Amino acid sequence: MNLLEVRNLSKIYHIGSIFSRIKIVAVDKVSFDIKEAEIFTLAGESGCGKTTTAKIILGFEEPTSGEIHYRGRRVDNLNHKDRRELLRQIQAVFQNPFSTFNPLRKVDSYFYDTIFNLGLADTREKAVEIIKEKLAAVGIAFEEFSEKYPSEFSGGQLQRISIARALLSNPSLLIADEPVSMVDASLRMSIVNLFKDLKEKYGVSVLYITHDLTTAYYVSDRVAIMFRGNIVEIGPAEKVLTSPKHPYTQLLRDSVPEADPKKRWKEVVKLADVEHEEYLRQGCKFAGRCPKVMDVCKKEVPPYFDVDGVKVMCFLYR
Amino acid sequence: MNVEVVKTESLKSYYILDIYGKKRVIKAVDEVDLTFEENQIYGIAGESGCGKSTLLKALFAAIEPPQRIVGGKVLYYVDGKSYDVYSLSEEERRKFRWNFISYVPQGSMSVLNPVLKIKDSFKDFIESHVKGKTKQELYEIAKQHIEKLGLPLKILNAYPHQLSGGMRQRVTIALATVLSPKVIIADEPTTALDVVTQRGVIQLLKEIQQISKNTIILVTHDMGVHANISDKIAIMYAGKIIEEAKTEELFDNPMHPYTKYLIHSLPKFGDKERRESAPGSPPSLADLPPGCAFHPRCPYAFDRCKKEVPVLKDYGRAHRVACWLVEEGRG
Hints:
heterodimer; A: alpha/beta; four-stranded antiparallel beta sheet; 12 helices; globular; B: alpha/beta; eight-stranded mixed beta sheet; 30% helix
């Protein structure tokens, strides 16, 4: 059974005044599954809908339509009490560890709050035991952690601590929204490796949300590429990122600057001048920039085609 | 023959803070010797808090308290003459700024005036440096420049908020280059951008450099960007330059343990081998460890590293490193 199933999820925002409203489909009929002990990546550029999808799963945003199932049970329409129950199972790690914690509050107070709010322990001794265990999983010593303020840690340490906090309730699924983009380059891999270890040692699944395709390739089992609200390509990370099928994935993959001076870019790229025009486009939203565009792309929305174990939303594979 | 355009000589720039009578000294740039040559993209890499932005401000001669130049020199080579920038008056320095050396900052939103159209930002900017031109002539200069860089002309009539982040960053670059400076300093110009947009911005920088054969000093923490565009790279750690070499040489043969971590920890497509980060965390510039600042994180550190500060030395092929391991042949 799948751990999490997302079915036809959509989120529509309206922008502008009452006279000139523009409808932005931030998430457009997105469907995917996350299996037990799997790292699944939603990758894409800013404005592709990856964070909105995560927020809907966490219950921070209401979906316009669509369903979410957790272990076979529908969870997108829960009441407050059931939602809190669900949050034991699904926990989040955010982008900026310095804004996750209040700078005037000691970091360990968040741990005790989480433990007592979720009813994970009834005495402080038991709570300390849980905290020690979770800190050990992320490689932080309890002594260097207690009674300290966020400013006393480096970004990398603080991000590990926020992962440890998310682990307190033994969740089955971690939702990590750009967890390494604010972490220094020399420490980044230690966080990414941590997700790998959590999956391998504790069977935790991770929904990894990122714009960084190289770490996505390194850490994930399966990956979905999002563009302007749609998943345009979904499949095993190895296939999607080493031999991308959708022209957008190809462009994205090609634009990642590789740390190899022998692989410099040669061709010139075309950028969108005004971004919201692409959301409003009929047919395929990438048609305006696609080098292989056909007439049908401008009229009809492409369905998914199965190519070599990968689902691609593109008429080229008809 | 390589022609020097900007040079630093044992430059020291510190932040001197006075907190309730207690003096704190933050050594953000310490004993930096660098030479920037004509017709070159020079990359500076380092993590946040290593002093790279401080170094850029010192190079651009736009320092404000509490930042101070404590020692050393910054030299500009203009029309065959050299000027020691910090011995000049503020008025003389102002003349070099934007004409000789210009600066592309990180956040493009805060650079452009939100209530002015792009063409008026250009007009104001050019007007403050070039005297005696009419409004129409100034607009014409802006138009020609935008055309030369291959950006759409309609952006001149737009307000900053109407442009996408990538376009805004490219407009900022256009603005910084309109007076054809010999040196362009770019501080993390692509950091907040998406990969495809980042590629567009880098392309533009590369084109500008190829057209005008000037010098670009590019600062970014992203080694992938450096591999793609820089001709020569300096690695900065805790206020010092610890390694400098031509791009290919540096990637093929990194010598400092920190540089090795920086390059080898980057994941690559088609290779899922486990990669490790450097252990520990970067030190605070206000409280640096004695000896080599990297020694507490370095798995190969020995006695000398804990006591003496290593000096940046050329070990052949114009490859400079500051590491005792290399000096003693242990590396």
